[in-house]
Amino acid sequence: MSSLYPLIPSFAGVIFCYLLIHFNRREENALSLFLSFLYLCLYDLTKGFYFFSYILVFAIFYKFAIYKIQNVITCNNCILAVYVTIAYLGHFLLNAFFAYLDNESFPYFSNYYFYYIAIDSLVSFMLFKVTR
Questions:
Q1: Distance separating alpha carbons of residues 45 and 48, to the nearest angstrom
Q2: Alpha-carbon distance 86 to 66, whole Å?
Q3: Which of 88, 112, 78, 93 is nearest to 7 (CA)?
Q4: Contact yes or no for 105/99 (Cβ under 8 A)
Q5: Is the pLDDT reported for residue 92 higher than 90?
Q6: Residue 82 has pLDDT above 60, yes or no
Q7: Residues 89, 36, 81, 64: what is their CA dihedral angle, to the nearest 10 degrees?
């Protein structure tokens, strides 16, 4: 849908927030986590990004930065906004890095990214609660 109508966000940031919040309870949410990872992989394929790049961003961010961000930032909604921002900008930067290594053209960075970050942050504020 977002390929036809660019003002409709893909909600990849919301799915990324869901993964970050619920990944520590993977036994209870195994099917929904699998479907979320599948959605992000299909998003990579349909938008022309490198395959598994969202999964790699998730793995790097979950391993190295999630607990530091939760300790530094005290506002729960701000944590969700940072997660969404990392989802979009980290994904773009990782694909730009892969394009550089592969000697391909860089992905196009537009103002829609900031629009998607704002919309996905608002949806994440309504749907999720960060537990510490």
A1: 5
A2: 11
A3: 112
A4: yes
A5: yes
A6: yes
A7: -70
Helix 76-85, helix 112-127: angle, nearest 10: 140
The tokens of 90 are what? 């980290």
- Cα–Cα distance measured from residue 104 to residue 23, given in angstroms and rounded to the nearest whole number: 33
- Per-residue pLDDT tens for 40-78? 999 999 888 899 999 999 999 999 999 899 899 989 899
User: Three-state DSSP class for 74?
Assistant: coil
- Alpha-carbon distance of 123 to 18, in angstroms, equals 11
Rounded to two decimals, the pTM is: 0.89
Alpha-helix runs per DSSP H in 48-111: 53-64, 66-72, 76-85, 91-102
- Could you give phi then psi for residue 104, rounded to 5 degrees? -110, 175
- Cα–Cα distances (Å) from 121 to 46, 49, 53, 106, in that order, read 23, 22, 21, 26
Burial of 36 (0-12, 13-18, 19+ CB in 10 A): buried
Cα–Cα distance measured from residue 11 to residue 2, given in angstroms and rounded to the nearest whole number = 10
